[in-house]
Amino acid sequence: MNLLTTSCQAVAHAAGQFNVYWRNGLQGAGLMSVSVHRSLPDPEVIAELSALQWLLCQRAVFGATQNGKGLSLKVSAGAIRKAVRAITAGDAEQFGKPHLKPYAHFLATRFAGAELEVDKDRSWIPERLPSDHATLSIRQPLPNTVEISGVGVVAVSKHAFERFGKWLCMQAGHDTWRLLRRMM
């Protein structure tokens, strides 16, 4: 099972700036400096969700073909798990924080079926800054993308993903993403 652990901490005296520490499995820690636009509500949750998406999709820490099957995520914000559950159940508006829905959408589609656990333990965070460091600036949700040979990187909308799943009569979201990627 692939394990990705993240922990988000606000940077002191810097509004909208967050350090998202991450580790792949039990070894190797990294750091993402995430800047969230000041107009966005719940910036710490958005920072952690955006870092997760960047690590899983753009950086592909578990490979480009990884989907939710065999993936375990430990996050520090309970709102992430609640948002994914609300999206999966189809009642994101009842969740109370519908503005998080576009940021958590990738976990309910491409990474559907991933085990999601809230863990506040920060003892694994190194005292020194990790050598693996990246920067991310967020004004809007990152797109869900797939690479199509001969075309390049293409964003997959929620509507396209859902229609493709219905067309295939698929039950599991991770199978839908895998087959969509294979067809592309």
Describe the structure.
- With 184 residues, the chain is an alpha/beta fold.
- It contains five helices and eight strands, in the order E-E-E-H-E-H-H-E-E-E-E-H-H.
- It has a six-stranded mixed sheet, covered by helices on one side. It has a two-stranded antiparallel ribbon with strand order 7-8.
- A hairpin with a 2-residue loop joins strand 2 and strand 3 (27-36).
- Helix 1 (43-58) runs parallel beside helix 3 (101-108) and helix 4 (158-168) packs across helix 5 (173-183).
Instruction: Summarize model confidence as the mean pLDDT.
Output: 85
The structural class is alpha/beta
Total DSSP E strands: 8
Quaternary structure = single chain
Helix-strand sequence: EEEHEHHEEEEHH
Q: How is the CATH topology named?
A: Nucleotidyltransferase, domain 5
Whole-number tally of structural domains: 1
Please outline the major beta sheet: 6 strands, mixed
The total count of helices amounts to 5
Fraction of residues in helix: 25-40%
CATH class: Alpha Beta
What order do the strands of the largest sheet run in, or round the barrel if closed?
A: 5-4-1-2-3-6
**β content, as a range?**
25-35%
Overall radius of gyration: 16 Å
CATH architecture designation: 2-Layer Sandwich
Low-confidence stretches: none
What distance separates the N and C termini?
A: 26 Å
Shape, principal axes of CA atoms: globular
